[in-house]
Amino acid sequence: MLDLAIKNIMRNRTRTTLTVLGILIGIGAVVALGSIAEGLNVSITNSLQLTAGKITVRNKDAGIFGLGTELTKDDLDIINTVSGIKDVVPISVKTGPMSGFTGPEYLIIGMEPDKLQYFVGENTKMYQGRTLETGDSDVAIIGKPLADKYNLQVGDTWTVENDDFQIVGIVEKTDISEIDSAVIVPLDNLQAIMNKDTYYAIYVVPDDVRDTEKVAAAINDASDNLNALTAADTARQASQIVDQIRFFTFGIGAIAAFVGGLGVMNTMIMAVMERRKEIGVMKAIGATNSMILRQILTESAMISVIGGVGGILIGIGAAIGLGALSGGTIQGYVTPTLALEGLAFALFLGLIGGFYPARQAARLDPVEALRYE
Amino acid sequence: MIFMKGKTEPKHEDGYLIETKGIKKCYGEEGKCEITVLQDINIHVERRSFVSIMGPSGSGKTTLLDILGCLLKPTEGKVFIDGKNVIGLDDDDLALLRREKIGFVFQQYNLIQSFTALENVEMPMRIAGKPKWEAEDKAKRLLKLVGLEDRMTHKPSELSGGQQQRVAIARSLINNPQIILGDEPTGNLDTKTGQMILNLLKKLNAEEGYTIIVVTHDSRVAQYSDKIINLLDGQVLNETYLGGSREHEAKVSRVSRKPALVQKGGD
């Protein structure tokens, strides 16, 4: 009797709308936050492609975005003494201006031009122009999203402090944020601008990819200063962090949704009280207890599923909106699983919230209910 | 009273439609009998008869009607409906019994306010699991029967008391019950409208063969009744038979008084 359920929940439109809104906000939060956690996961997974098969060496005391202690030439020399190494790629990083809470708008990465080859994979293609070449100076290549954002083309100039770099190439969008929002310039140039000869990190390319772990261990043994991580280590750490973020975001969303569920319970308790006499009539004319139970559960499930569907749409909207606001730094990924989870969670809340009032209704004594004024 | 002397329980279509034996109803904490509402009620209702239950307030009329309508279980005693003892049936069986055999008409009409007259009449049939179109079809015919064909899409608040009660009567008929129970059906109506409702009930009884049991204060009901059961302080004070040997007549004419006007799909 779905038509009856629809009629019943439409009786008090304001109350139903508010209840739907409660679920909608809760499920919206679950989906939006969940999609950001998903997006982060995808983003980290993409980034890991860059360092796959390589070892990332940083100072033990290093922080993020160039904060903290950097690596020195001595560190580079120590790394070079370790056997099984094909090449080392020291890089310098200068962060662009911060945009809101989402991190820097771009990164200026200094790298020896001939070493760029190690980071060019199947995901990185030139959109326009050329890549860096040995002997290049005062030139830059930038990511396509960054070029679009600042409306730049090959031949234009990118200025870092007072130095101008001529843009010689634009890298096709990769979904790897380190490349999409990167300005890559020759290492010497960037070090000169920053007036230092230290490195943000040194990437180590092993002779044999299978020896990655061994080489990393050897680097860690070679100096107390160094912290060598393989892509697998990074992945492990990252997935731990992502799991924590997932747990945290789901927790926040779940609390919001749970409050929405309480709203459903409240609404249905009110509805059952108001319709007490009517439930008595229904029983008198032959409705069984389980029919009444089902009727009330159908109504509460309907309210929460409407809220759930709305919440998924709002959540998707919020994820897209946040992505746009952050200029692509935060990318929401709404997977079908996430949407289904949101819907299932909404239905679950509806049934849990509806169960108590439904049982109350089913247990109503028809004689008492009929004569209730 | 011949039927009651038999040792075997009355059989279907053979005995009384409703019969009670030694009904007692009392209320109290933890099953204790602190307030006795009904005591030693032994009554019977003939098929296709019109019975009034009368008595002062607090005499137990409504409680008795609730028991006859299987809404309330007596503390002691047996209730036979169509020869079957309903004591011991669970809630679901009782609901099914009410759905199939009993129609209710209340003093307060008890229509669902947000539903139209048509939807109210459909309700018992929808509860019985019949499809919407079938219920709608039959509800329309019944509303026509009670003279409300031009009020079908009106909500109860848009109908007069008499019209609402006619909707309630149509609702009570839709599942082809054998019994219609009225709890003060004219109690909220003016004299003229009350008369009209009584005429309608009498017509359903005389022409369609429905068994009608009405709890009432309304002395006019007497002129429609075959039997009046007078209650006082929870006991039967007396039973008055009207219209001569009605019981005999009822038995004799049982076969000839088949329902005709209202199509009884379930029969």
Give the helices and strands, then pairings.
The complex is a heterodimer of chains A (373) and B (267).
Chain A: H1 2-9, H2 13-51, E1 55-59, H3 73-81, E2 85-95, E3 107-111, E4 126-129, E5 139-143, H4 144-150, E6 157-160, E7 163-171, H5 177-180, E8 182-186, H6 187-194, E9 201-206, H7 212-222, E10 226-230, H8 231-274, H9 276-284, H10 289-325, H11 336-363, H12 366-370
Parallel strand pairs in A: 3-8, 5-7
Antiparallel strand pairs in A: 1-9, 1-10, 2-3, 2-9, 4-7, 5-8, 6-7
Helix pairs in contact in A: 1-10, 2-8, 2-10, 2-11, 8-9, 8-10, 8-11, 10-11
Chain B: H1 2-5, E1 18-27, E2 35-41, E3 44-45, E4 50-54, H2 61-68, E5 76-81, E6 84-85, H3 91-101, E7 102-106, H4 117-127, H5 132-145, H6 161-173, E8 179-183, H7 191-208, E9 211-215, E10 227-232, E11 235-241, H8 246-252
Parallel strand pairs in B: 4-9, 4-10, 7-8, 8-9
Antiparallel strand pairs in B: 1-2, 1-3, 1-5, 5-6, 10-11
Helix pairs in contact in B: 4-5, 4-6, 5-6, 6-7
The share of residues in helices of chain B is: 25-40%
Query: What is the general shape of chain B?
Result: globular
What structural class should be given to the helix and strand makeup of chain B? alpha/beta
Largest sheet of chain B: 6 strands, mixed
The secondary structure category of chain A is alpha+beta
Number of helices of chain A: 12
Cα distance spanning the termini of chain A: 27 Å
How many β-strands of chain B, per DSSP? 11
Largest interface: A-B, 23 and 27 residues
* Secondary structure tally: strands of chain A: 10
Average pLDDT confidence of chain A is: 87
Oligomeric organization of the protein chains: heterodimer
